[in-house]
Amino acid sequence: MKPSKPAIRATAVCLDLPLLGDKVQETERGGSRSVGGRLTRLIGSRGQVRALDSISFELNHGDRVGIIGRNGAGKSTLLRLIAGIYQPSAGTLAVEGRLSTLFTNRIGLNERATGRENIRLAGHLLGMSSAQIETLLPEIAAFSELEDFIDLPLRTYSSGMSVRLGFAIATALDPDILLIDEVFGAGDRSFQNKAQERVRRLIEDAGTLVLASHSSALLRRFCNSIIWLDHGELKAFGPTDAVLAEYELSVASKQTNA
Questions:
Q1: CB burial class (10 A; 0-12, 13-18, 19+) of residue 252?
Q2: CATH top class, domain 63-86+98-257
Q3: Alpha-helix residue ranges (DSSP H) falling in the chain
Q4: Which residues contact 168 (CB under 8 A, 6 or more apart)?
Q5: What is the secondary structure of 124-186 as a DSSP string?
Q6: What is the pTM of this model?
Q7: Domains in the chain: boundaries
Q8: Which GO cellular component does the record give, naming just one (predicted)?
Q9: 134-168 pLDDT, tens digit each
Q10: Main-chain phi, psi angles of 247, to 5 degrees
């Protein structure tokens, strides 16, 4: 029986991040301007960015949801919030189920550990027994196409090799909720096809998918609904074709007026 609670429920979620580095200038009227999100106030002589602003949505188990928006819209930030890497500055976020992440960087992987050791570590973090991990390990190693590199430290891997390993781990451990951030470009065409087929099988098993991507074609293939973010705000949330059509029209309009 599927859980009765929503897989993910966000209620008026806000996330404020300090603006590090160079000092920023306050506008004449003290208003906000976009800096990835929106500049909300000055802390001394430094700024604070509201990366996500009053985001509310509810995802049920088995939903396949895409996140779209221009660079700096908050797509990756929202994924990291759901993953627990960030905590909300305001509002509430509830996640029900075993969660696995696949992001474009090496979050969750140990640079000093070998590929094989990273597989075992990830399995233990997800509550798997040693026997379960050892059963899955050969399949994960084969899928990642690392061959002898599986027993070398992660710091010796190229970025593509790291992403392939992360993808193989995240999708082999049967999570209830899978978060993916722009990873289908890793590897050659053969691996990209394998990755998309693996996600398709996960979807058929009714796992909840949240996929951030710039590719409308990819989102149309995998997702039944779309979250459109703009400067950290929820612009739209609804059926895939309807939201993507609105988003694409907005992008085309801005390019025409540029």
A1: exposed
A2: alpha beta
A3: 75-83, 115-125, 130-144, 159-172, 189-204, 216-222, 240-257
A4: 140, 141, 143, 144
A5: HHTT--HHHHHHHHHHHHHHHT-GGGGGSBGGGS-HHHHHHHHHHHHHHS--SEEEEES-TTS
A6: 0.78
A7: 63-86+98-257
A8: membrane
A9: 999 999 999 988 889 999 999 999 888 888 888 88
A10: -65, -45
